TrEMBL record:
PANTHER family: COPINE, COPINE-8. Residues 1-86 form the C2 domain. The lineage of its organism: Eukaryota, Metazoa, Chordata, Craniata, Vertebrata. CDD domains: C2A_Copine (cd04048). This is C2 domain-containing protein. Pfam families: C2.
Amino acid sequence: MLNAGSLALSNSKFGRTEVIDNTLNPDFVRKFILDYFFEERQNLRFDLYDLDSKSENLSKHDFLGQAFCTLGEVVGSLGGRLERPLM
């Protein structure tokens, strides 16, 4: 799940990827389109869950961790790909 926010706005849920079954190295297809404002710090938080059922309620699933970055870091990265450790 992607949460996006800026200094002026509170964090809000932006979207979810598709579910990838039974892999430690998922290759997601869904892409997120965000407006990039060079002069504004746009914080991103990625939450990772192990889904155990079809329920949309995330409290029913195992939280594996989260990663943080800014949209500027993604835009400035090679190929738009950025790796971060889970916290």
